[in-house]
Write a structure and sequence with these properties.
Elements lengths: L1 H6 L1 H52 L6 H12 L2 E6 H4 L3 H8 L4 E5 L3 E7 L5 E7 L4 H16 L3 H12 L5 E4 L11 H5 L3 E6 L4 E8 L7 E9 L6 H41 L14 H51 L3 H36 L6 E4 H13 L6 E4 L6 E4 L1 H18 L3 E8 L3 E8 L33 H11 L3 E6 L6 E8 L3
Parallel strand pairs: 10-12
Antiparallel strand pairs: 1-4, 2-3, 3-4, 5-8, 6-7, 7-8, 9-11, 12-13, 13-15, 14-15
Helix pairs in contact: 2-9, 9-10, 10-11, 11-14, 12-13, 13-14
Keywords: ATP-binding, Cell membrane, Kinase, Membrane, Nucleotide-binding, Phosphoprotein, Transferase, Transmembrane, Transmembrane helix
Subcellular location: Cell membrane
Catalytic activity: ATP + protein L-histidine = ADP + protein N-phospho-L-histidine
């Protein structure tokens, strides 16, 4: 199984997704439990805050000698155990003491002993402990009755101050001069007699309590406590939030997994693109033995094989071309000896023709060697020996060297500023010379060279007024030994390697060459595109 995980990318992805799902579900459940625990504690503290505020405020108003009797009476009335303990005897922790001093309530729960609420009594060093097994209707009515009597015992301003004290904790308690609408058809006799009416709201799982107050010398008012909603352990909003969090975590995990695979595939794609562009030294970094790693190893093997085959081919072409020079040199030497030995005009004429053929053969060998050398440097990944090259100066030298060979053709270099590029001066001059010489062979009377700068590149155009290049042949003419006609003896000469060499030189410099129709001379326009110097 371990070997399968190492070798299979898809199996590893599936296992990672399954593990991510399990971890995400575990974190979601843990988060649900923790959030629910925090919500329970908050609900209990919020529910106990107002009653404990009420009890501590009432007992703080009792004389010291009557507090024990008050605690006994209300312990029985509220069905809970009430006691006063000094804060030193209670011995709270550091954080519990801070909470008590800030008016907070400590809530403790034990399955056997029930609930215990603790709050500091204002203006004393005592804390009030309230212990009960659970909340009952008797306690709700008793607390509402105690709150109503405590509020009714004072006049309007003091009553509002006490009401604000009870509502400060967020507990739903209010006092109004008109009967609450929620009372509905409740019997008014119970309220008139000072009793507490309890109203259940089943649709909201809540309860509200009402009491009619009769302050001395004032019109009656109605006290409303609630509605107090029951605790909802898993509300829909919480579940939806956790579901969104879970889906987000899964989406992030899937994205990271797929991103890793995509990054490796992108590296393979880039390597294949570099290999297709002629950079045969390109290799892929193999990081594992899974299927992508095996594809990378197969790619590297293929690239090495192709590079070896092409290198062997180039070595053979170079060797053959070099070997051809020896018999050509012997033939030239032999013709010169025959020419020296004979004064016959016919023989000398034939020997001059042979000598011209030998010159053409030398030129062809030179073209083949140049083409093979460029191919070899591309295959080996050799970078250009870049220097600053002034294209205008190079073009001027090329035109000067070709003017004497093509007297019937006018060569023109369009005026403009000097333009410099980074490149190999020898090869760039060879590319320009091949284009200008090719234009001179096909032009009727004029060849024009133009230099221009664009946003990201430098452009050199060579135009002529010849017959041009048909659109269907504009890609094929850059292939080795390609010719527009089948004749290899026509007066224009050429071997079909000049434009191929130009294309190799441009690719080696990170540029390109293209051909279209000259807009001014109506012939062919060859354009060299080179990266602009930064």
């Amino acid at each position: 199984m371990r070997r399968a995980l190492v070798d299979s990318t898809f199996l590893r992805v599936y296992v990672m997704l399954a593990a991510t799902l399990v971890v995400a579900l575990g974190l979601a459940m843990l988060g649900l439990i923790l959030v629910d625990k925090v919500r329970v504690e908050y609900y209990r503290e919020n529910l106990a805050a107002a009653p404990m505020q009420l009890l501590t405020s009432v007992i703080a108003e009792q004389p010291a000698g009557q507090r024990e009797a008050w605690l006994t009476r209300y312990s029985e009335a509220l069905d809970m155990s009430l006691s006063l303990v000094s804060i030193a005897s209670y011995a709270p922790s550091y954080f519990e003491r801070i909470r008590l001093e800030r008016g907070g309530v400590l809530v403790e729960y034990s399955g056997e002993q029930g609930w215990r609420f603790v709050r500091l009594v204002p203006g004393s060093g005592m804390v009030l402990e309230a212990s009960l097994m659970g909340m009952s209707e008797r306690q709700l009515r008793g607390m509402t009755m105690l709150a109503g009597n405590w509020l009714a015992a004072v006049d309007g301003a003091a009553r509002n101050a006490r009401l604000d004290m009870l509502t400060a904790s967020g507990f739903p308690i209010s006092l109004a001069n008109t009967p609450p609408e929620a009372l509905g058809e409740q019997p008014s006799e119970q309220l008139d007699n000072g009793e507490v009416v309890l109203h259940l709201l089943p649709e909201r799982w809540s309860v509200a309590l009402f009491m009619k107050l009769h302050p001395q010398g004032e019109p009656p008012s109605w006290l409303t406590v609630g509605p107090m909603e029951s605790y909802e352990s898993r509300p829909p909003a919480l579940l939806v939030s956790l579901l969104v969090l879970l889906m987000s975590a899964l989406a992030l995990a899937i994205y990271m997994i797929v991103r890793g695979i995509e990054a490796r595939m992108s590296r393979l794609e880039m390597a294949a693109t570099r290999l297709a562009s002629g950079r045969l030294d390109t290799r892929v970094k193999v990081e594992s033995s899974d299927f992508l790693g095996r594809v990378g190893m197969a790619f590297n093997g293929m690239a090495s094989q192709v590079q070896s085959l092409l290198r062997a081919q180039q070595d053979m072409i170079r060797a053959v071309s070099h070997e051809l020079r020896t018999p050509v040199a012997r033939i030239r030497f032999a013709t010169q000896m025959v020419e020296d030995m004979s004064d016959d005009p016919l023989v000398r004429s034939q020997l001059r023709g042979v000598d011209n053929d030998i010159d053409e053969l030398d030129d062809l060998i030179d073209e083949i060697l140049t083409y093979a050398r460029l191919d070899s440097e591309t295959i080996s990944g050799v970078e250009t020996s870049a220097t600053l090259v002034d294209l205008r100066e190079v073009s001027h030298r090329v035109i000067e060297s070709l003017e004497s060979l093509h007297g019937a053709v006018t060569l023109q270099l369009a005026p403009g500023e000097d333009i410099e590029v980074n490149g190999d001066a020898r090869y760039l001059q060879r590319a320009i010379q091949n284009l200008v010489a090719n234009a001179c062979r096909h032009a009727h009377s004029k060849v024009k060279v133009t230099l221009s700068e664009e946003s990201r590149m430098v452009r050199l155009d060579v135009e002529d007024d010849g017959d041009g290049v048909p659109p269907q042949a504009r890609q094929d003419i850059f292939k080795p030994f390609a010719r527009l006609d089948d004749s290899r003896t026509r007066s224009s000469g050429g071997y079909g390697l000049g434009l191929s060499i130009v294309q190799k030189i441009m690719a080696w410099h990170g540029g390109s060459v293209m051909v279209d129709e000259s807009p001014s001379l109506q012939g062919a326009r060859f354009s060299l595109m080179l990266p602009r110097r930064p």
